[in-house]
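Researcher: Quick test of sequence recovery. Tokens follow.
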């Protein structure tokens, strides 16, 4: 649900966030129940993942800024950036988040934080150099829409649950948690065969768990980007301006060294545009963002609707 009536609520996004969260919790509960039934300690199944999840949720903004070489900036240090955020927050009637700059050349922006009162909006040095002020305002309106929709925290938790569900099943295999099924596997061919089957089942289960959580998270991520495009464009009243920024940033992304893009790939779910290496159709297929053409098509349709209105 949006925090203010001036940023349009997206009921489709709200429903999808609820369903995705529910399915991931059920998935993790099933995995945890099976592992506990097989003798895995409660600490591994519940306590450790819960502690890690709380830390990631509570410190998500600090983790993201550290990973992207970002730092909080004052109005004196970045007056233009703060001026844009001030105008957008006044227009949206929402609390002003902290403003940060990431010292990387890759043109991008992201929002992070556990709620609107503890949010951070960050622009990279690359996007500040490449976009003019109206285009940058359009990009930041997109990021503020994420904050208002509260989908940043949901994506953080959703990504973590899927990761942990797959991680625990792999831990069982690599740590030999099935060792209790028998001690003389080398001497007993039948026990050795049973162990091999069990190991294969664990690996297969791990792949299935990860695949389900990945698909659920990617589906939510793609929809939330379209929702932020819509809300951000409506907030500034100029969908064409956001489309222009999208085209420019996507084009400039191809000029960034492949090494830098790969280092930033694990933040793709939170970026304005994904950091994809050149010519990687597989990466595009499993991208956290909808295709550029789909985003531009939606903005063009919205532009026509606003002009008719």
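Model:
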């Amino acid at each position: 649900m949006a925090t203010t009536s001036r940023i349009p609520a997206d009921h489709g996004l709200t429903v999808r966030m609820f369903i995705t969260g529910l399915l991931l919790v059920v998935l993790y509960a099933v995995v945890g129940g099976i592992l506990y039934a097989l003798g895995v300690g409660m600490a591994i199944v519940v306590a450790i993942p819960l502690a890690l999840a709380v830390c990631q949720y509570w410190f998500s903004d600090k983790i993201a800024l550290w990973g992207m070489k970002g730092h909080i900036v004052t109005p004196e240090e970045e007056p233009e950036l703060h001026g844009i955020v001030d105008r957008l927050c006044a227009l949206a009637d929402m609390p002003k988040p902290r403003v940060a700059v990431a010292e990387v050349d890759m043109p991008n922006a992201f929002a992070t934080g556990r709620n609107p009162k503890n949010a951070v909006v960050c622009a990279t040095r690359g996007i500040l150099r490449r976009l003019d002020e109206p285009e940058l305002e359009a990009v930041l309106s997109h990021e503020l829409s994420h904050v208002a929709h509260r989908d940043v925290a949901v994506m953080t938790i959703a990504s973590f649950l899927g990761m942990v569900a797959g991680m625990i099943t792999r831990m069982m295999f690599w740590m030999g948690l099935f060792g209790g099924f028998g001690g003389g596997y080398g001497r007993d061919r039948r026990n050795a065969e049973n162990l091999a089957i069990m190991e294969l089942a664990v690996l297969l289960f791990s792949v299935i768990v990860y695949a389900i959580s990945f698909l659920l998270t990617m589906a939510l991520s793609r929809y939330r980007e379209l929702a932020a495009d819509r809300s951000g464009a409506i907030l500034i009243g100029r969908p064409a301006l956001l489309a222009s920024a999208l085209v420019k940033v996507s084009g400039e992304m191809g000029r960034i060294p492949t090494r830098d893009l790969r280092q930033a790939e694990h933040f793709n779910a939170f970026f304005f545009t994904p950091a994809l290496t050149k010519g990687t159709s597989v990466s595009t297929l499993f991208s956290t963002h909808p295709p550029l053409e789909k985003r531009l098509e939606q903005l063009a349709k919205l532009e026509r609707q606003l002009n008719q209105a």
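The first helix runs from residue 11 to 37.
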